[in-house]
Amino acid sequence: MYIPYDILIIIAFLMLGYGFGQLAEKKHYRSIRQRETMLKDILIFGAKSPPADWPIVTSELVHGNVVVSVDYFKRFLFSLRNIFGGRVEAYESLIDRGRREAVLRMKQHALRLNSDAIFNIKFETSAVSRGFSSSLGSVEVFAYGTAIKTS
Amino acid sequence: MLITNIESVPGKTIVKHLGLVQGSTVRAKHVGKDILAGLKNIVGGELKAYTELLHDAREQATQRMIDQAQGMGANAITNVRFATSSITAGAAELFVYGTAVVVEEDQD
Amino acid sequence: MKYQNPRIDNDINVVSEHPLKTFAKLLLMATLLALAIIVLLNFSIPYVVKFIPFKFEAALADRFGMTKIVPSKQQSYLQDLADRILAQTGASDEIRIRLHYSDQDTVNAYATLGGNVFFFKGLVEKLKSEQALAMVMAHEIAHIVNRDPIKALGRGLSTAIALSAIFGSSDNALIRRFVGSGETLTTLKYTRDHEARADADGYDWINRLYGHGCGAEELFVLFERMHSDDESRLTQIFITHPYASKRLQRIRENQAGACSDNDSKTNANPLYRGSDAG
């Protein structure tokens, strides 16, 4: 009997990607939400500099970065979505996770320095590596800003 | 060395501007990491090896910028910006630049 | 200025729709689109083929290395038979049959691009009469004259085009399944309609050549018999030639009982080695 191994491999990868990918995403979101609540008191601002009346003790650059990879299922989903166009839900959540994780790492950096607030937050998003096909492999999100400690 | 990405160093007064300083490094990922990344490409998730690689590369670029600033007699760098660009498949340039300044404690 | 630190809802970018639902929806849409393209292209093939000169088809076959004919006693006998049948078809002068004889025991014969017809020893030596061999030949020639090989190739290509247009180059495995390489030329799949038409045309030409259609049924009698003795050997020929008994029945209808005494009307196949040969 003829067995279409190539198709079976694709299906196996899809199932693996879906199973592990969804599990990892759920777990990651849970941890993100928990840490967001925990680090809520480190204030972050898009403003360039702190108000003149703040009693500033020290200031220092803080940053956080993360490289997140998309799973096989999402990449397949994207290749289908690419035919019709529209909202690529699969990649939205990937980049959302990356950005929130980067902010959390930046806040953790600020926490280690006992800072109270971070000003002038900047984000950088870049495609790090290409996967085995020409589609997106993984994304690096880098966040940085100036952490301020007040007396 | 004080580093900020805003135009001043809060709590301090800039007394001298020394000009632009920068540091850059180009990093390639190695095969072992790539194989692992290949696996991660199926199941998704964070690529810790890449995260660390890029983090270390940025630290190195920053260190180079700091060295340059110290050579000029600066004690702070303001307005720091980072730039990441993938030069070719498998290699990325991490670039950091800012303004070297001399700061003093506020006089009040 | 007053500073507040409210709980910010950061989940605004998270999609609530279940990814499997999105997946199913997109897959369905893509499949429908692919099917639509394939149907459209397939529908236009018979019209397009008329504008493809036979020379082009022959040149394509040469690309796949089908030019070389190994001369032998069997080859020249079969080539001569092919030329005699071709003369009955009234096909354009452009069409030429290039007959290849293979020493393998496979019970098979097939026609492919550029008028290339392949006969295998296994089949040639099993047919008792010249007329039976001529029927196989006429059937294969009918494929060539009706331009079935290029149509079959066109179907494969249109499927490939549809799939690559939709899935891009990222999922090559899918596309390779439908196009393949030069090897697919030997396994070009003709549709059942093409087979039925090749049977009918072939029978007409045999009738014209010999003045009767007797002996034409022998191939199908052989198929039926082999089917009952040994299924595995026949799988190959049955893939492209389904319904041997139905085809036998059709030929018997055409003969209309005129062939009860076959031996006096048929000539012997000089290459016959007994129906159990090989």
Overview of the structural elements:
The complex is a heterotrimer of chains A (151), B (108) and C (278). Chain A has helices at residues 5-38, 72-84, 89-112; strands at 43-44, 56-69, 117-127, 138-150. With 151 residues, chain A is of the alpha+beta class. A four-stranded mixed β-sheet of chain A has the order 1-3-4-2. Chain B is of the alpha+beta class and 108 residues long. Chain B contains two helices and five strands, in the order ββαβαββ. A three-stranded mixed β-sheet of chain C has the order 1-3-2. Chain C has helices at 19-49, 54-63, 73-89, 121-124, 130-145, 148-167, 172-179, 192-210, 218-229, 231-240, 244-255, 262-265, and strands at residues 98-102, 109-112, 116-120. Chain C is built from twelve helices and three strands; from the N terminus they run αααβββααααααααα. Chains in contact: A-B, A-C.
Structure at a glance:
The complex is a heterotrimer of chains A (151), B (108) and C (278). Chain A has 151 residues and is α+β, with helices and mostly antiparallel strands.
Q: Treating each run of at least 4 consecutive H or I residues as one helix, how many helices of chain B? A: 2
Strand content of chain B: over 45%
The overall pLDDT average of chain B reads 87
Radius of gyration of CA atoms of chain B, rounded to a whole number: 18 Å
> Gap between N and C termini of chain B, in Å?
22 Å
Question: Alpha-carbon distance between the termini of chain A?
Answer: 77 Å
What's the multimeric state? Answer: heterotrimer
How many β strands of chain B by DSSP?
Answer: 5
- E-strand count of chain A: 4
Low-confidence stretches of chain B: none
| Global outline of chain A | elongated
Number of domains of chain B: 1
Tally of individual domains of chain A? 1
- Under CATH, the homologous superfamily of chain A reads Hypothetical protein apc22750. Chain B
Query: Approximately how much helix is present in the residues of chain B?
Result: 25-40%
Strand-pairing-aware structural class of chain A: alpha+beta
